[in-house]
Amino acid sequence: MSRGGEIVYIPDDSDFSSFRDQCEKSEGWHCQYNRGSVTVWSHGQQESRTVQKIKMRISCKDVSAETLYDVLHDIHYRKKWDSNMIETYDIGRLTVNADVGYYSWKCPSPLKNRDFVTLRSWLPLGNDYMIINYSVKHPKYPPRKDFVRAVSLQTGYLIKSNGANSCILYYLTQVDPRGSLPKWVVNKVSQFVAPKAMKRIYKAGLKYPEWKRKHNPSFKPWVYPEQNTLPSVSLDELSLQHADSLENIDESNLSEERMHISDDEA
Question: Quick check: 114 and 105 in contact, CB under 8 A?
Fold first, then answer.
């Protein structure tokens, strides 16, 4: 998804193909965690000390690829399982498979909380699914004083069917947190935070069918575009979010002893 120039674009087949290759191939990736059904890798060539590229995989038994795809799209259900989320909402739609949205997330204290405005696109491929995003600027949603505006260079999910009621979930993220973070933070993410997050998504998938039966079961605008009532957004309204235009804070001296991860955050 790295393209030159200043043009905001909707990812096409080549972008999805490249993302899938990154998820499935092992070259250049170094295993940081491998326990049970969860594996976490980091990429060998980092752009800087703060921009980290991390990939995760979890095997999900008793959860179909279709169900997990619904879980990752359903903004109302996300409030039930994503305890790191502070706020999320859709801003507007670009096409039948692309929109713009806002997400703020609770970082483990004493780190400051982050937020994003992203252009998201999704693609069903038979029994497999992909969702990818990158950061954009929208004039009505500038950086807020109570958050550090972070930059998603490339983030997304690949859901691979592994039978009628089983799947494999990949999550790949390359984010600039707009801060000089101590090395122990990166280690905590790969060894503790990331595996817990993947397990949380898996558990959400197990519980989703029952929850959805009680909460507007036929409403799935990511599957049925005619249900989408979001206002239209034009690409002309958006611009690329460059990291160097945002505040950069120095959290490199924060002590690991001060770090607190609650049961909800974990």
Answer: yes
